[in-house]
Design brief:
By secondary structure, the chain is α+β, with helices and mostly antiparallel strands. The protein has 3 helices and 12 strands; from the N terminus they run αββββββββαββαββ. The chain has a domain of about 140 residues. The strands form 3 sheets. Strands 1-3-10-7-8 form a 5-stranded antiparallel β-sheet, with helices on one face. The protein has a 4-stranded antiparallel β-sheet with strand order 2-12-4-9, with helices on one face. Strands 6-5-11 form a 3-stranded antiparallel β-sheet, with helices on one face. The N and C termini lie far apart (about 95 Å). About 10% of the residues have low confidence.
Length: about 260
C-alpha cells in the first residue's frame, strides 16, 4: 500500500515539474531580445546662399559723339547694349556717332566687389568684326627710278590705361592690339573666394590729332580724302578709304566651377 502511494507521489511530482517547465517556456516566449544599438545626434544645421558681390560697369557716354566742342569732346551717346552676364559695348557711325581730326573720346571699364565663391574674370571679343578708319594705297613701282611708297594711314591713336599705373598698357594705332592688351592685363584666372576684393578701373581712349604732320607729312591730305569719302565722294585713283570705326567686346565676372564642392 505504501509502495503505491510512493509511486503516485512521484507521478504527481513529475507532472508538477512538467507544468512548471511549461510555464517557464510560456514566460520566456513573451520576452523580446534587443539587437546591439549605437546612436548619436547631430546638432542643428543651416546654410545660406553664398554672396555674389561683383559689379561690372562701363561708361561709354563720351566715347563717340554727335558733335564736338572746342576740346573735341561733347556728348550724346546713342545707346549701349547690356546683358545679364556681362556688358557689351559697340561703336557704330550709323548711329551718327562721329570722329574727326582734333576730336577724342574715352570710356571707363570698372570692376569692383567680392564674393564667397570662386570667380573668373574675362574679356572676349571678335577682332574679325572690327572696322578701323584707314587710307591705303599700294606701292607704285611702274617707274623704277621714281618708286612711290605705299600708303598705310591710320589716324586714330588708341590708348589703354589702368588706374594707379603710370605707364599705358597700350599706346598705338591698332584697335585690335589695344583690346588685346586690356584682355591680357585682365587675365582669365580664377579669383579665390573671400581672398580677392576687386577694385579695377581701366580707360580706353582714342584721339585723332588735328595736325599730325610731324609723324605723317601728308596727314592733312589724307584726312581730307577721308572726309570727302565720308561725304559720299570717290577716293582718288589707287586709294582705298575706310571711314568707320566699329568694335564690340564683352566683359564678365562669372562663378568658376573650381572649389564648387562643399
Amino acid at each position: 500500500m505504501e509502495e503505491k502511494k510512493e509511486r503516485r507521489n512521484k507521478r504527481i511530482a513529475v507532472v508538477s515539474a512538467i507544468l512548471v517547465l511549461l510555464v517557464a517556456i510560456l514566460c520566456l516566449g513573451g520576452v523580446t531580445f534587443a539587437k546591439y544599438v549605437s546612436s548619436t545626434s547631430a546638432p542643428s544645421q543651416q546654410a545660406t546662399v553664398a554672396k555674389w558681390g561683383y559689379v561690372v560697369t562701363v561708361t561709354p557716354e563720351n566715347m563717340f559723339n554727335d558733335a564736338y566742342g572746342d576740346n573735341g569732346t561733347s556728348a550724346t551717346w546713342a545707346e549701349a547694349s547690356t546683358g545679364r552676364t556681362g556688358l557689351s559695348i559697340a561703336a557704330d557711325t550709323a548711329k551718327n556717332n562721329l570722329v574727326a581730326p582734333g576730336a577724342k573720346g574715352s570710356m571707363k571699364i570698372i570692376v569692383t566687389g567680392q564674393a564667397e565663391v570662386a570667380a573668373k574674370l574675362s574679356l572676349t571679343y571678335d577682332a574679325s568684326t572690327f572696322e578701323e578708319i584707314s587710307l591705303t594705297k599700294p606701292e607704285d613701282n611702274t617707274d623704277p627710278d621714281n618708286v612711290i611708297a605705299a600708303v598705310d594711314y591710320k589716324p586714330i591713336v588708341w590708348k589703354v590705361e589702368k588706374k594707379n599705373e603710370s605707364t599705358a598698357l597700350y599706346d598705338g594705332k591698332s584697335l585690335s592690339d589695344a583690346l588685346k592688351a586690356l584682355q591680357n592685363n585682365l587675365g582669365t584666372g580664377v579669383i579665390m573666394p573671400g581672398a580677392t576684393a576687386l577694385d579695377l578701373e581701366y580707360t580706353i581712349s582714342w584721339e585723332w590729332k588735328f595736325d599730325d604732320t610731324t609723324a605723317t607729312p601728308d596727314a592733312n591730305k589724307y584726312d581730307t580724302i577721308l572726309g570727302n569719302v565720308a561725304a559720299g565722294n570717290t577716293a582718288p585713283a589707287g586709294y582705298t578709304a575706310k571711314t568707320t570705326i566699329k568694335f564690340a567686346f564683352s566683359l564678365a565676372v562669372e562663378q568658376s566651377q573650381t572649389g564648387a564642392t562643399a
